[in-house]
Amino acid sequence: MMKQMYRGLRLAGLSLSVGTAAATARIALTLNPLRVPDRLPEEPISFVCYSITPWDGVWQRPQQFATRFSQFHPGIYVDPVGVQHILSAGASPVLHSHSPALSVFCPRVLPMGKTNSRIIDFNDALIIKRLEKLIRQLHLGHPVLITNTPLADTIANRYPWRAVAFDVIDDFTKWAWSPRDAGEREQRLFSRADTVFTGTYALWQKKHQFHPETEFIPCGVEIDHFMKANDPDCHVPDDIASIKSRGPVIGYFGGLNERIDADLLVYVAESIPTASVVLIGPIFADFGLSDFEDKWASLLPDPTSPGFRLKPIPPNLHIMGIRKYQELPAYLKAFDVCLLPYVLSQATIDIHPVKGLEYLAAGRPVVSTPLPDVKAFYSGIIDVADTPEGFVEAIRYHLKTEDRAKARERIEFAKPKTWENMMERMRRKILKACNIDA
Predict the structure, then answer these.
(1) Coil, strand, or helix at residue 153?
(2) 3-class secondary structure, 317
């Protein structure tokens, strides 16, 4: 039945109706029951990380956690890939090995897998069946499920996981693209979860009422990696070196999406014409400076990708596209001032930006819009501006002021906040949920 369903999807050219897709998914689960082996006594811990964050996208909390957790326990990182991304920008292999203990599984799924509830159910039914087979192939026994998306409620409830951990990294129920039943799905996931973490304090304040085991565990930073920006042997890449030769660089790296204040970036570029504003990261269709021609291209790696058209921008504003995580320190070396240019909205008030620590680890001055977590935890170390005028004024101050003592203070502030510390706190909670002493 499953093979026939896949063949039918291919032959139909993805024209299967949403209602039929959901019904087919339910039938597939009924006719093909999961073949889960009996749990053995003293079975070692393994895991499946079902993530909303693309493995090859901006390297952040989910990937940092999975790579470090796999040093103790083998597992799979699940990154569903919508067909639209394959058509527009290519995609990674369906299955590849990141390390001997960590496999990356990128099942191909139907478009609208984050926006349409019935397609979510259909995709998840396919993923569960393929995961069940993969878990057996890799001899993972009864893994722990670790997920960061409220849309994983079906995944959590349709498989006998050893335990379920919900890592709340954002309030996706408030995003414009989330399905209408996102809140209900999140509540089903809270009900199934054995333990819960939040990546920001603002999220803990909102979500801890839904689960007694909710704990705020902030993100970390790979301090040695970003300190390379100060290494004399670290060479600035040619593409940004040519921009740097014209004057100071005001930089940002991270996703370019609806959360980034495009109008503010244009205002900064126009207000400081002697400097360059450089944006590094994947470009999403909802970014304010994007003008996508191709409806499938909801995310593109750079402005030269087919289906992308850039809106008119100042000549000193440069959108460079995504760069590999390993390359970021070299680009950061060219930054004179770093930005956290988030628009304030229901989708951003819960942010605790990882890149803030990455900037600080290099000793760079940082200017941010007034995110609650930035104001609460970075007071005195990151400049927070409430208005566009104040934002520009703070940038101008740092462009003309070099304070080496302040740079060292920023690095010392970031040093103890490592990914290893974050992972170990999460690991202890996961082991507790499995009734194992850490």
Answers:
(1) helix
(2) strand
Question: So what's the architecture of 35-220+419-433 in CATH?
Answer: 3-Layer(aba) Sandwich (3.40)
Phi-psi region of 14 (alpha: psi -120 to 50; beta: other; left: phi over 0): left
Spatial CA neighbour of 218 closest among 374, 369, 436: 374
- What is the C-alpha separation between 88 and 114, in angstroms, rounded? 18
Structure tokens at 215: 């704990």
Spell out the domain ranges in the chain. Answer: 35-220+419-433, 223-414
* Domains 35-220+419-433 and 223-414 agree in fold: yes
Q: Token digits for 135? A: 């878990």
Q: How far is CA 378 from the centre of its chain?
A: 21
Rounded to a whole number of angstroms, the CA Rg of the chain reads 22
CATH class of 223-414: alpha beta
| Tens of pLDDT, residues 155-202 | 999 999 999 999 999 888 887 778 889 999 999 999 999 999 999 999
The least confident of 221-235, 276-290, 391-405, 407-421 is 276-290
Burial letters 221-236, b for 16+ CB under 10 A, else e: bbbebbbbbbeeeeeb
Contact 398, 275 (CB under 8 A): no
Phi/psi for 188 (5° steps) reads -65, -35
Residue 297: pLDDT band (50, 70, 90) is low
Q: Which amino acid is at 398?
A: H
Question: Position of tokens 């493995």?
Answer: 55
Chain Cα centroid distance, residue 360:
20
* Report field, pTM of the whole predicted structure over 0.85: no
- Residues 75, 49: contact at Cβ < 8 Å? yes
> What sign does the dihedral 243-245-247-251 (CA atoms) show?
positive
Q: What is the pLDDT of residues 331-381, one digit of tens each?
A: 999 999 999 999 998 778 888 888 999 999 999 999 999 999 999 999 999
Residue showing tokens 């949920």:
433
Closest CA relative to residue 263, chosen from 192, 210, 317, 217: 317
Instruction: Give the number of other Cβ atoms within 10 Å of residue 124's Cβ.
Output: 25
d(C-alpha 339, C-alpha 203), whole Å? 22
Q: Residue 32 class from Cβ within 10 Å (0-12 exposed, 13-18 middle, 19+ buried)?
A: middle
Q: Give CA–CA dist 431/423, Å, rounded.
A: 12
Q: Of 399, 357, 393, 398, nearest to 374 (Cα)?
A: 357
Q: Rounded to whole angstroms, how far apart are CA atoms 230 and 219?
A: 23
> Which pLDDT tens digit goes with each residue over 391-431?
999 999 999 998 999 999 999 999 999 999 999 999 999 99
